[in-house]
Amino acid sequence: MILNIYFRTFTIGFPQLKDQAQQEIELKIYKDTVSEIERKFPAADSLIKGKLVDKMLSEYGAKNNRKILEQIRQEYLKLKDRYQDKFGQTYLLELDGWHYARYVENALRLGRVGEEIRSGKEIDTFMLAPEGSSVTWSRFLFYLSSFLYRVFSLFKPVPLYTFLFYLPLFFTAIFIVLLYLFCFSRWGNFSAGITCLCVGLSPIFLVRSSAGWFDTDILNLLFPLLVVWTYLKVYEVGSLRIRLFWVCFSAFWVGLFSFTWREWWFIFFLIILYEIYSLLNLILLFSWKKEREKLTLARQHLFCLLSFLLSCLLWVILFSGFAPIIAVFAQAKGALTLNSSLTDLVWPNTYSTVEELRKVDLRQIGRMFGGEFLFISSLISLLMFFLRTLYNPKFNGPKREAAIILAFWSISMLFACSRGARFTMFLLIPLGISLGWLINEIYLYYYSKNNKLIIFVVLLIVPFLILGFVDKAYKTAEGIFPIMDDDWHRVLTRIEATTPGEAIINSWWDFGDWFKAVARRRVIFDGHSQDRPQAYWMANVLVTDNEEEALRTLRMLNNGGNRAFEIINKYTNDPFRSVLLLKRILLSAPRQAKENLLNNLPSLAAEEIMKLLFAKPGKAYFIVEYTMKNKIPAISFLGNWDFAKVYLSQNINRKSRLQILNYLKGLGLDGALADRLYQEATLLFKEDFEYWVSRRFRFHGDVLKGQRNNNIILFDRGLIYNPAEQTAYLYSPKENSYEIPKELFIFENNKLKKVSHQKNNLSLSVLILKDKEDYKAVLFDPPLINSLFMRLYFLRGTGLKYFRPFIEEKTPDGYIRVFEIDWDSLVEGINTS
């Protein structure tokens, strides 16, 4: 418990920064000393200078020890202050925590999670502006946290966000105690200790349960553990009444889990899978050996299976209503395509671009687990655990049932890891238990044989194993910092203070939770609604080179989100036709748009869409910031989504060539283009379509800082710029020579100039940013130069008509730029040339 809690407290005071502060102060003193020696003895031999530096450092350290310690302390305070508010409280670590903290605020203030109730549903008015979003059924964390806060405040009043910062430590303590007791009750103290260290100190879980990580992750492990623990009790008792009690108790935890997390169903299906396997196994054994005992056991399993099903339905409905049951099959189906950009929908799958949902291999799983050796050892332990249930008839009862459930748990989660890296965390319990069990079994077996040598080896290995856990945990804890920092907090509080309360923030989804919780402003979409079509529209805005088209799209989003598409699709019942019709209307003048709508929709529907597309929205602001530069490959992939190619990928093997071409021409696609796309589609394999339907653009590396050397400017990565000749050369390691970029752009005095060279042999372009005598350079794919993101972030909105600079914050990593959207300057009629 001490080890598990200790490493989770690093985020309170960041002790690792003390070492960094000491190194920086020592380096500063060393540099000052070297400069002083160079000034006093410029002609001295380098060896003599070195001796003098050592002597002066020694004397300075002896005389100024207290001063140095104070400098180190001040530097440490400065380093950690970036991640803490003015009261010295560390910011919540990740993004979801801010969203959940706002829900806890609502629960305390309103007695419910949503700000409004419409048609009997709770509505989060800050999400999916302007219409808002219904709150999902998974609310247990918010009500539990608000209850615990009220109780805690009776003894010591503290700010809510401070309480929520420390709450994960409380949840962790409960989880470790219950995990220990579960393992202790079955495999003893030795196994329980190893398991708690293996699970608790694993890198992926340590990060997701440290102080400040206010999320459901700890509960997402706690409830499955309780479900399995209580369900295993069913096969430890003989009384039918007591057995039924444990079944219902296990189902109770399933119900509470459904009230906590949307993907609650995985543990439900795991128990069902275990029971089906047990039933089939017993029936086959009865058919083979004709033992009546097997048939009796099969009846018991059938009874437990049916009882569990009915009890789970009851508890889930009681806690969460019918919504989780209705959604479960859609969620299970969606899990199969979680990291695939192409689904059976018309829109791109945003989840395919999310880092924590990337596919991972066994080596990567091993690193997140705590090390490849530890991961492989745990897998071997589980395999031995399971094989023993198959080939050792003496290994029966609760241990046998536990082995089967843990095996199925691991297999299902190994598959889930192929859908997303974050699911590695759910492997911890079955594999951690298996490792602790194996070490305990080896020890007990040779203890019973009185084999002192093997016992000594086991007892020798265990301390090294524990040291491995601790070392990995320390290195992980050293790297845990909040995403929020003072720069972001300053911008968000300025937005709250200087913008109208009803304003809407337009940006990419990542920091939407901050815009809602800190700036207290509504957002177009966020991390909890990133799977909506708004992701496509916003990505398209960021990569388009047509400012007026971007404004029209933003106007539609700020007036009604994706409502215009939904209305059109309600009448056409054809999503491809609907989205392409909407895109054409967005580029049209009002009169032409209305005529087009009336040709396809009833007048009332057409009138509603006209308001959504052409009415002036309320105050709105657009934010671009430094992290978006690295997200451009994902953003451009979503924004460049080609709906015609998507239609082909979904129908190339379902419909005839004539049907497909006639359909595409009916959508307004040029006949020659439709035929070419069809020919391309016939040449592709199924797995190729994901890369065919869109294009990814990127910035190549970080922003490069230039240094003048005579008449040229030198940059990292082998970039050379000659201001007088306005030429640039970039070193190519592949060719082992300097090559000419495809295009050179120079931004100076708020003007962008393009310099073309006939002889260019690189596919990327270069942007030179000059501010007085300061030079910076950006390497990027050519189509990005006129993208809205490039013009807003790197060119500061220069030359744009509808985006007025509002707030700019310089950070160590780049800029946070906020623009006010000027709806009044938009002239109807759009030039698409």
Question: What would a concise description of this structure say?
Answer:
The protein has 33 helices and 18 strands.
Number of helices: 33
Record field, number of beta strands: 18
Could you tell me the mean pLDDT?
90
* Main sheet characteristics: 5 strands, mixed
Taking strands numbered 1, 2, ... along the chain, how are they ordered across the largest sheet? 5-4-6-18-17
| Rounded radius of gyration (Å) | 31 Å
Spatial separation of the terminal alpha carbons: 66 Å
- The dominant shape is globular
Poorly predicted runs are: 829-833
The share of residues in extended strands comes to 5-15%
Overall structural class, as computed from helix and strand content, comes to alpha+beta
Helical coverage, percent range? 55-70%
Topology summary:
Elements (H helix, E strand, L loop, with lengths): L1 H7 L1 H4 L2 H25 L5 H18 L1 H17 L14 H15 L5 E3 L2 E4 L8 E2 L5 H16 L4 H41 L2 H5 L9 H16 L7 H19 L6 H25 L2 H29 L2 H14 L25 H8 L2 H20 L6 H20 L10 H21 L3 H27 L7 H13 L5 E3 L5 H6 L4 E2 L10 H10 L3 H14 L2 H10 L2 H12 L3 H9 L4 H12 L5 E6 L2 H12 L3 H9 L5 H10 L4 H12 L6 H4 L11 E2 L1 E3 L2 E4 L3 E4 L4 E6 L4 E3 L4 E5 L2 E5 L9 E7 L2 E7 L7 H6 L9 E9 L2 E8 L12
Parallel strand pairs: 4-5, 4-6, 13-15
Antiparallel strand pairs: 1-2, 2-3, 6-18, 7-16, 8-9, 9-10, 10-11, 11-12, 13-14, 15-16, 17-18
Helix pairs in contact: 1-8, 3-4, 3-5, 6-7, 8-10, 8-18, 10-11, 11-13, 12-13, 12-17, 15-16, 16-17, 16-18, 17-18, 18-19, 22-23, 22-28, 23-27, 24-25, 24-27, 25-26, 26-27, 29-31, 30-31
